[in-house]
Design goal:
The chain has six helices and two strands, in the order αααααββα. The protein is mainly alpha-helical.
């Protein structure tokens, strides 16, 4: 199977896992895990690999491999953020009965800025994707706020202490 078809199939798999235009966090984790090898094999040898791999695609006509790489990177950031929130929530839960430790925890974690990447409806990630006729379409991933469990729990903790 040609490599572009593999990227397209992977992207289509992610799209098809949507329910009412929203992705479930479990589906994101599954897709991310299933595509880690493809990402690792492709990151240094894709259409935009002349750029620093941490930068998004700058191609005039975005190719499917660039879109795949950017989707993977965006979902990696989301997963990383949720893992940070999980660690922070678990740390808080271990301190529940010690007021001094809770105040110290709050001061140490007050810089967590979790509202900048999510709004009251959830998270929307938009990426440009070009069609063969050179018109740009948006590739949109939506995740409901309720799907990001540790984001929600951490938000509730900060509102109550």
């Amino acid at each position: 199977m040609p490599i572009n078809h593999i990227f397209r199939k992977s992207i289509d798999q992610l799209k098809s896992s949507q329910t009412n235009y929203f992705l479930k966090y479990e589906s994101i984790l599954k897709w991310h895990k299933e595509n880690t090898n493809l990402y690792n094999k492709s990151i240094n040898n894709y259409s935009c690999s002349i750029h620093e791999p941490k930068l998004p695609c700058f191609c005039e006509k975005r190719k499917v491999d660039c879109l795949f790489i950017d989707i993977y990177k965006e979902l990696s950031k989301l997963i990383e953020k949720e893992n940070i929130f999980k660690k922070t929530v678990l740390e808080f839960n271990s301190l529940k009965n010690d007021t001094t430790k809770i105040l110290n925890w709050k001061n140490e974690n007050k810089r967590i800025n979790f509202n900048t990447y999510i709004n009251e409806k959830g998270l929307i990630i938009r990426l440009n994707a070009s069609k063969k006729n050179d018109t740009y379409l948006e590739f949109i991933m939506r995740i409901k706020k309720e799907e990001l469990i540790f984001h929600k729990q951490l938000n509730e903790i900060f509102q109550t202490i």
